[in-house]
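Let's sit down with a protein and look at its sequence and fold side by side. Once you have written the record down, we can walk along the chain together.
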Amino acid sequence: VQLVESGGGLVQPGGSLRLTCVASGTIFSIYAVSWYRQAPGKQRELVAAITSSGSTNYADSVKGRFTISRDNAKYTVYLQMNSLKPEDTAVYYCRLIQTWGQGTQVTVSS
């Protein structure tokens, strides 16, 4: 299994980004997929997850601002991030089963 994230970057507070995680090497549609993030000096934390049937859950800190979705035909999971805050700055990782992607940096700063 391989996961490749993209879509990170520098954005001003209040802005938006969409992260993409593309999977290969497995039957993607039957597994839950999660987004995690890790800020400097902090532990990695769960941001959002989506099950094979499309049920979602979110960390309290991102509810109402972030949306996770999946396109099984494209082996892809998305994380739409709106109303970004400086505290959202972190490396964002995609996880499927026990496999992690390489991460994509998100920086929210004016």
Remarks:
- DSSP finds no helices and eleven strands in the chain.
- The mean pLDDT is 96.
- The CA atoms of residues 78 and 91 lie 15 Å apart.
- The radius of gyration is 13 Å.
